[in-house]
Specification:
With about 180 residues, the protein is of the alpha+beta class. It folds into two domains: about 1-20 and about 100-180, Topoisomerase I, Chain A, domain 4, CATH 1.10.132.20; about 30-95, Gyrase A, domain 2. The chain contains five helices and six strands, in the order αββαββαββαα. It has helices at about 1-20, 45-50, 70-80, 105-140, 145-180; strands spanning about 35-40, 45, 50-55, 60-65, 90, 95. The strands form two sheets. Strands 3-4-6-5 form a four-stranded antiparallel β-sheet. Strands 1-2 form a two-stranded antiparallel sheet. A hairpin with a 2-residue loop joins β3 (about 50-55) and β4. The longest helix has about 40 residues, at about 105-140. It is elongated. It starts with a helix and ends with a helix.
């Protein structure tokens, strides 16, 4: 029971970690394009499955398609992803310059970070509620004692607090990274 809850909470934390990785800071990162999907032979494919994505330096991402005929579709998909990037291609490679963030854009990103953090906190709390409900039902069905119930509820609360703290620490570090001017 506890292991299942722990696994579910860790998945929520891992999902939050992925969201953070995709959040733009002042420097180029291949994870900035993780959300981009490209129309490729009639189906939507993640960009990293049809091209090699590389952060050439702090201000540029290069995308080299495995199939050169997909260049226009890749360029179009990056524009359509609404991540504030303006790609251009030279016939072989799509170059995606990453402009420095403005102060206003940084603040917007921090607001977005807070929103994502709150969504994931809520997910962890919902998992806690599911666990607590299961324990209360076990007590009602006389499968566990009141002492077991109290101990289990305390363990679940400690686990919840630990997982939320992990996410808050990651969020603070990312917020500092976003607000830092290079």
């Amino acid at each position: 029971m506890d292991q299942l809850l722990k696994t579910r909470m860790e998945k929520a934390v891992e999902d939050f970690r992925k969201e953070l990785a995709a959040t733009r800071t002042g420097r180029a990162s291949v994870h900035m394009l993780d959300s981009v999907t490209v129309e490729y032979y009639g189906s939507q494919m993640p960009l990293n499955q049809i091209a090699q994505v590389h952060a050439a330096d702090a201000q540029l991402i290069t995308v080299q398609p495995f199939d050169p005929s997909s260049l226009p579709a890749i360029e179009k998909a990056i524009r359509a992803a609404d991540i504030g990037l303006n790609p251009n291609n030279d016939g072989k490679v799509v170059r995606v310059p990453v402009p420095p963030l403005t102060e206003e854009r940084r603040r917007d990103m921090v607001k977005h970070l807070h929103k994502v953090l709150e969504e994931h906190r809520t997910a962890v709390r919902n998992i806690r509620r599911d666990g607590n409900d299961a324990i209360k039902k076990a007590l009602k069905d006389k499968k566990i004692t009141e002492d077991d119930e109290k101990r289990s509820l305390d363990e679940i609360q400690k686990l919840t607090d630990a997982e939320i703290k992990k996410m808050e620490d990651m969020s603070k570090a990312k917020e500092k990274e976003v607000m830092e001017i290079k």
